[in-house]
Structure formats: C-alpha cells, structure tokens
Amino acid sequence: MKRVLITGAAGFLGSHLCDRFLKEGCHVIAMDNLITGNLKNIEHLFKHKDFEFYHHDVSKFIHVPDELDYIMHFASPASPIDYLKIPIQTLKVGSLGTHNCLGLAKAKGARMLIASTSEVYGDPMVHPQTEEYWGNVNPIGPRGVYDEAKRFQEAITMAYHRYHGVETRIVRIFNTYGPRMRLNDGRVLPAFIGQALRGEDLTVFGDGSQTRSFCYVDDLVEGIYRLLLSDYAEPVNIGNPDEITISQFAEEIIKLTGTTQKVIYKDLPVDDPMQRQPNIDKARAILNWEPKVSRAEGLKITYDYFKSLPEEELYKKEHNTFEGYIRK
Ligand code: UDP
Question: What kind and span of H or E run contains 243?
C-alpha cells in the first residue's frame, strides 16, 4: 500500500486529493495548519482506517513516521485577498514549507509533486501560456508574495531534482473551481455565487474584459494524478483552455442562479492579470489528459454545493476589504 503525505489537506484542492488517493487504495497522511483550510472538508474521512491527520505548519520541520512513497505539497493560501492578509505565511509556506517537504522527500526516497500555479506567468505577454514562457511578474506588488514564493518553489524543486536526484513533479494549476471552495475568500466564483445567494449585486472588477479559464476540480485532480505517475519532471500546465471574460462569467452566474440582481463595476485590483488561458499541449501529449467537464456542468454542481451550506455561512465575513489592493 502506497503512503502519501498531502500538505494543505484541509483546503479545497488538498481535500479532493485526499479523497482521490484513498479511492486509489493509498494510506493518506493529511497535514494542515488550518489557517485557510477547514476541517469540514475532510471530516468525512476521519473514520477511514487509512486516513490520519496532523495539525501542523509545514513551514516548520516536518516529522512523519515510517515510509513515504509520495508527497503532494498543496499547502498555501490561494486567493488574492489571502496574500494581502497573510503575506508572510504565504511566502513561508511556498519557500520554507517546500524546502521542508523536499528534505523529507529526500530522506524517505519519496516522489514529490508541488502545486505551482499560472501565477508564475504573472500578467502574461504570451497567450495562451505555454510552459516555456518565463512570465511577467511584479515581485513587489501585492501578489508578489504568492507569485515569487511559487517561482522559488519551482526553482528549489528543480535543484533538489538535479542536485539530489529527488523524483519531483511540478503542476502549474490554472483557475480551478468546485465544491469546498471557500465561500468568502474573495475569489470570483464564490464571490459571484455568494452575492447571488444573498441577493446582492455582482461585483465585476475593472471593465470585466479580463479573461480567465476555469477548470472543474475533478478534471484537475485527474491531471495531477496522471502527472504524479508519469516520469516527467518539468512543469506541466493543468487547466481548462475554455477562456471567458469576467463580464461573460458574471452573466453566466446570473443565468445559473436566476438572481434578479445586476452587475456593478468596481476598481481593478493591482496587477490583476488581463488574460489567462493554459496551453495544454504538453498535458495532452505526456499525460493523455484533457478536461472533460464543461463549465455548465461544473458550475451547476458547484452552485448546488454552495446552496446546500447552512445559511449563516453566506454571511461569515472572512475578508471584508480589498483596501491596499486597489490602484489609487
Ligand atoms: N473578480 C471580480 N469580482 C470579484 C472577484 C474577482 O471581477 O468579486 C475578478 C478579478 O479581478 C480577476 C478575476 O475575477 O480578474 C479572477 O479573480 P480571482 O480572485 O478569482 O482569481 P485570480 O485568477 O485573479 O487569481
């Protein structure tokens, strides 16, 4: 039986990975410091005999008893407002946390996969983004703490691979959505659905012409699982190339939810990328992978999930300000 450590296990992606690895018959060691993770995402797993949970901050030394086959490093704040609120932790988990995980991988002879991001491309000058593109990142802007931590993470991962011979995999994750996203973390999909459910207007930032390409979580997990089992050590984009403007996206949410509210326009946050679409030729060729779930299907499942949450969740304010994030 394979033993896998998943960091950030109580988060949106981490919790879906826990489900997947248990389904694959692995023993899952889940780790999270619960800064942005939520135990509710994994509480259904606590009774599973092959699941254990450590409440631990991976920026500190990690001890895991016995053998490990795989390490999936998914711990990180992952919304633009998180980076503003907890910038130091964001930097530490991407840098020190990755270093600790790599040290553990080396000590255990484990294969390690790191969760990198389309943010390494910054506000991209190449469109769609291929893995060869080096990016256009502002290191000192509000998103710099995330973007640069993730770029450092890729660098140290390749160094451990080349210098220490650790088996490593790097996935560059594009915008992903699905059940267990945090309702109030400021990301566009939960923001719009939350607004629709509360009967508020939908806040589009800027003129809404910026684009994103949204991937349903099950597709992403499948791509990541295939990448882990592949022998490819360089970065691979995983995302859905179906690109849409944020204005169009707001219209889709209005239609889906049947809300009678309208769209209102707010200032565009600093360094908000104007366009984003993954080129997934590499994932197609190496992993024989491409997304299967259409946005219509995925959004319906996600909306049903948000609707099923207790009503008070709608009004919990995790973050209530974009102050400091808007260009004056
Ligand atoms: N956005 C928006 N309204 C919101 C939240 C976000 O128009 O209430 C925009 C945001 O400016 C960005 C896009 O939606 O252009 C995606 O934002 P998100 O924070 O989800 O993720 P990002 O891809 O920027 O990391």
Answer: strand 243-245
Query: In this predicted model, what pLDDT tens digit does every residue of 213-228 receive, in sequence order?
Result: 999 999 999 999 999 9
Rounded to an integer, the average pLDDT of 53-77 is 97
Q: Find all residues with CB under 8 Å of 270, minimum gap 6, and list them.
A: 141, 142, 143, 325, 326, 327
Task: With a cut of 90, say whether residue 108 has pLDDT above it.
Answer: yes
Does residue 83 have an active-site annotation? no
Q: What are phi and psi of 140, to 5 degrees?
A: -105, 5
Options 146, 225, 303, 325, the catalytic residue: 146
* CA 102 to ligand 1 center in whole angstroms: 32
- How far is it, in rounded angstroms, from Cα 30 to Cα 254? 37
Cα–chain-centroid distance for residue 302? 16
What would you measure as the largest C-alpha separation in the chain, in angstroms? 58
Rounded to the nearest angstrom, the distance between the alpha carbon of 161 and the centre of ligand 1 is 34
For 173, the enclosing helix (H) or strand (E) is strand 168-173
For 205, 235, 303, 305, the CA distances from 264, given in Å and listed in that order, are 9, 38, 21, 25
Q: Is the pTM of this model over 0.90?
A: yes
Would the CB of 81 count as within 6 Å of ligand 1? Answer: no
Nearest Cα to Cα of residue 71 among 31, 44, 38? 31
The predicted-structure confidence for 226-268, as pLDDT tens digits, reads as follows 999 999 999 999 999 999 999 999 999 999 999 999 999 999 9
Map residue 295 onto helix, strand or coil: helix
Across 299-310, average pLDDT: 97
**Which residue has its alpha carbon closest to ligand 1 atom 12?**
272
Distance of alpha carbon 115 from alpha carbon 75, whole angstroms: 8
Counting DSSP H helices and E strands in the chain, the numbers are: 10, 13
Contacts of 308 (CB under 8 A, 6+ apart): none
The domains found in the chain, sorted by start residue, are 3-176+215-238 (3.40.50.720), 181-213+242-271+294-318 (3.90.25.10)
Both tokens assigned to 2: 């394979």
Secondary structure (3-state) at 286: helix
